Fold these 2 entries.
Entry 1:
Amino acid sequence: MINNGSNNKLETYSHLMRRAGVGCSIDELNEISQIPYEKFVDQILSPENPDSFDEDNFDRYFSHEGIDIWSGRWLYRIINGGYPLREKISIFWHQIFATAWFKSEHPNSLINQLEMFREVGLSDLKTILTSLSKDPAMLFWLDNNDNIDGEPNENYGRELMELFSMGVNNYTENDVKNAALAFTGWTFTQPIPLYPTGHYASNFKYEEFRHNQDSKNFLGHTGNFNGEDVIDIIVHQPATANFICRHIYNFFVEDEPQVPAWNIVAPKNPEAIKDLTDSYHKSNGNIKEILRTLFNSEWFKKSKFKHLKSPAELVAHTLKTSGNLREIKPGILDYVSAITNMGQHLLNPPTVEGWHTGKEWIDGGTLNERVNFAVSEMNDPNKPGIKEIINQIKTSKDEITNENLIDLCIKLVGQSNITSKTKNDLLEYSKKIEGKSLKKHLDRTVIKLIQVIVSTKEYQFS
């Protein structure tokens, strides 16, 4: 039955679950809202059963080949797994450290990179950047396998600072040259040829004889630096704390302007960025501790529905609501295709910049795809999530009137941001569906109302 507790309290817990994962059912919401908020944040950051995912059962249905299969695995994990934040953070880093299949055409490397983000994504930034710098997919993506003493390649050294840690105008061309020299000799083992048995993994390889041994000047420091030394210097830069924390704010709190504008456009909430950077410095760049600060803050609790869902978030959130992916079954690739059709081909971003986020997810074509997907998913009263919504309504102590039914549907779908105008439109629509036969045709009416709710502008936001 619907919890009669404070609506504001329930909405705050629901908001937390949308940002730390992709939402929750009303039964889950009623359960978690009994836990003190800060204690529940601790559980989200460090769950007791993080690996509640049946890998063997998944492998019965799907092979290990292909990036779309692994995108489907990610989708299933974030909906059903015991550690949704781990899946969310892997896509967060994938968005920033964008590496794409279209260059390497080697799915194993990209899959291993995503698994690496899952493994270290909530650790400290030094560990994350070191793991990234030794990742074969990234080494090939930014040509560091061609970076050798005497013929340095500056691609990775430049993007490490510009796109991955500090942002523009916080380093010099001399810093780029010396960073490149520090990463000379960092390469990967050549994988066994594809044919006749399939793809094989590649591993990091350090070739000391190709490494530049000269003294280097980097961001005001001098020494015979290797890549780890450069990373250690970078993570202690104030610019790095600001850049990474603004990314975290943009992903978990509120849509910011696109990254290229950050050097000329101030953050929307400078106080929040300061709170996050203070946490960064106190914890030596520990991402879990930064997120603890974020989730417990008042400005986070007030940021409901200020983030436009990415295609992956919209599909996952819709499936979480409908309950249509609670079991491993054929057809999961159709959901991956839906994400791609909305403009986000996971593990294959368009450029080294990743995807442009926020309102740039939306155009005439992608909006149509988003609405059609959500409406089509909410079409069957026998889907587990929809059945739960209908049962909640039937067991509600409230009288079933058009007005109450709309309020219950909005609450159970989790869209407390529905405006009064939209609610009035829903009321007029509900009166046309069945007239005076509301209780007799309740299931059908609920389905139609939910479909209208998920087709609204408000549903595009989390």
Note: The beta strands are 186-188, 204-206, 216-218, 221-223.
Entry 2:
Amino acid sequence: MDSREIEEKVLVALEEIRPFLASDGGDISLVAIENDKLVKVQLHGACVSCSVNQMTLKSGVEMTIKRHVPQIEQVISVDPS
């Protein structure tokens, strides 16, 4: 799987999880994919200040992305710059 395919599959995974985040007033966007193994995302809206956003990131977002792209090793959230 090349980098373009990885990005496409990660975006599909984010689209799959977006309705769940939106139902709580949040959203997510892809920031970068490094070395085809590390995905950086940015949480928006209610997700930024949510007390369980790290749990959502690991159990929801990371799990969904890894289901679509098994070679992804980690998903991290970055703060807006």
Note: The chain has a mean pLDDT of 90.
